[in-house]
Amino acid sequence: MGKVAIVTGGTRGIGAAVSKALKAEGYTVAANYAGNDEAAEAFKAETGIAVFKWDVSSYESCEAGIRSVEAELGPVEVLVNNAGITRDVMFHKMTPEQWGAVINTNLTGLFNMTRPVWEGMRARKFGRIVNISSINGQKGQAGQVNYSAAKAGDVGFTKALAQEGARVGITVNAICPGYIATEMVRAIDEKVLNERILPLIPVGRLGEPDEIARCVVFLASDAAGYITGSTLTVNGGQYFH
Ligand code: CAA
Fold it and tell me: What is this structure's pTM?
């Protein structure tokens, strides 16, 4: 059996591509998901990858979920914090619920998932944490004050934790995807996408989930052992950080 990797939000969108790419590299993958049973079952049937349901915004659920993955598959050596949601709305209309949901999933979710695997990685002197942030955490995006704040927080989390992990063989890196062809991006109003977003991407197209998955595979590999605390920008030239 290969190294065990957990991918949060691992049954759809970028996460599904990451789960499949890690499996193809020989990892034993646990794909976490929060709500969409139908998509998770279809993903499991298609790929043979084990799926586990819990909500990354709950610390207790993450602890219990990780315990069940470890009992079934073994100690977690790679963690890809990919799960994320949007509640896009201009700030003057944003509710505390819309703020809280995004912060709790997209930022606190990193604490909730990483804290329970951290001590084991320290003890074994090996670990790979890859956090999926966003271009909008780097540049900010109107209509996404909640999301941009959480995703910028993910980068700070990455840089601080990388300093703690360096001495014990754990790397912590972030990837900032631009606009990738997933349901999340397809949910943007078509007119907004075509008129206000696509023209800003020099490469002239949305990215593909696989183009992010390949970066995760690299950062998880032994070959990337000297890369830690870094932010890999993958956005078709839309923003240079
Ligand atoms: N900068 C400044 N002002 C802007 C703006 C911008 N980029 N975009 C819109 N506005 C202004 C509009 O001009 C408008 O002003 P007026 O009322 O004075 O005319 C006002 O804000 C409202 O704009 P909309 O008509 O678009 O308002 P809406 O309520 O229908 O929609 C919205 C608001 C849902 C936020 C919509 O604008 C939207 O979807 N924007 C795109 C947000 C976005 O990029 N989300 C990314 C999702 S994908 C993702 O998150 C993955 C990832 O990591 C990249």
Answer: 0.96
* pLDDT digits 0-9 by tens, 42-90: 999 999 999 999 999 999 999 999 999 999 999 999 999 999 999 999 9
Fold of 4-182+210-232: Rossmann fold (3.40.50)
- The torsion defined by the Cα of 122, 123, 125 and 129, in degrees rounded to 10, comes to -40
CB distance 54 to ligand 1 below 6 Å: no
Q: Which ligand 1 atom sits closest to the C-alpha of 178?
A: 54
Computed on alpha carbons and rounded to an integer, the radius of gyration of the chain in Å comes to 17
At 77-133, the pLDDT tens digits run 999 999 999 999 999 999 999 999 999 999 999 999 999 999 999 999 999 999 999
CB distance 80 to 6 below 8 Å: yes
Q: Using most ligand atoms within 8 A of CB, pick from 87, 88, 241 the residue to mutate for ligand 1.
A: 88
Atom of ligand 1 nearest to the CA of 189: 39
Q: Which residues are tagged catalytic?
A: 147
Lowest mean pLDDT among 95-99, 168-172, 190-194: 190-194
Backbone φ, ψ for residue 146 (5° rounding):
-65, -50
**Cross-sheet strand order for the sheet of 231-234:** 50-53, 28-33, 4-7, 76-81, 127-132, 170-177, 231-234
CB 133 within 8 A of CB 174: yes
